[in-house]
Amino acid sequence: MTDMFVHHKETIVPVNVGTPDARFGQFLLEQFGGATGELTAALQYWVQSFHVTNPGIRDMLQDIAMEEFSHLEMVGKLIVQHTAKLNQTAVYDAPLFQMKGVGPHLVDSQGSAWTGTYVQEGGNVVRDLRANIASEAGARQTYEALINRCTDEGTKHALVHLLTREITHARMFMKALDSMGKLDDPFFGTIQPDDTVDIVFNLSHGDDHRGPWNEAPFQYVENPQPKGDIPPSPINPDDEKASPAGSR
Ligand code: MN
Ligand code: MN
Fold first, then answer.
1. Separation of CA 52 and ligand 2 centre (Å)
2. Ligand nearest to the Cα of 64, by number
3. What is the pLDDT of residues 218-227, one digit of tens each?
4. Residues 140, 28 contacting (CB under 8 angstroms)
């Protein structure tokens, strides 16, 4: 058996647009080539999985990465259907598609090109899983914005499924962190923190509030005072006050 990808053309839920709306198609690009979109999610979990040593978490990341690729396909198929009547759409309703042609394209709803800087990954499984919870929150929120602006029932049905799956993924990432004891323990890595680790500084004065984020076991410092001296003055050989070489 060789490494391989197998693609099934059937989608997990129907992807049928009733009334094409090129303007809504442009909004949908946010989840195709946008920061919170499915390409970002698919590549993020896929790339992360390569450096994860825990076989269970690696398998989870690869399962979810494949699902995100299927989401990319679903969003792309929604966009192509929404742009199918482009020549009957006023140019100002969908300028992006009028210029670039029927979608999808790897840009966001404002036409900005997709970039790898959207992808959060960084060599440590705890760091990655925490980033993934934030990514799922972003994706879920974008789907909510899309669903709130969606008037086509077929589109809405698919989008609610996509929103639902992002909630499931967030739960999976939380459970995975919990299985490592890292869901509510912010410490990870090998370098021990310094003695300020349990201290909370009140640095915005007025209308101060107390809560679990600054109560015991945290030590709350009402009026923090500097404990370091003033750092040494800079020594800059190019400073205009220094004597030029060879003068006087
Ligand atoms: Mn997704
Ligand atoms: Mn997801």
1. 18
2. 2
3. 999 999 999 8
4. no
Ligand 2 is a single-atom ion; what residues have CB below 5 A from it?
Answer: 166, 169
Q: What is residue 212's predicted lDDT score, i.e. its pLDDT?
A: 97
| CA atoms of 227 and 247, how far apart (whole Å) | 42
How many C-beta atoms surround the C-beta of residue 56 within 10 A?
A: 10
CA of residue 21 to ligand 2 center, whole Å: 25
Is the pLDDT at 198 greater than 70? The verdict is yes
Beta bridge partners of 219: 199
Q: How far apart are CA 129 and CA 48, in angstroms?
A: 9
List helix spans (H) across the chain: 22-28, 38-49, 55-82, 95-100, 125-148, 153-179
Q: What's the mean pLDDT in 191-203?
A: 96
In the structure encoding, which two tokens stand for residue 14, read together? 């129907």
Distance in angstroms (rounded) separating the CA atoms of residues 157 and 18: 11
Contact yes or no for 65/49 (Cβ under 8 A): yes
Q: What global pTM score does this model have? A: 0.90
Question: Relative to the alpha carbon of 167, which ligand is closest?
Answer: 2
Residue type, 155: T
User: How far apart, in whole angstroms, are the C-alpha atoms of residue 81 and residue 22?
Assistant: 9
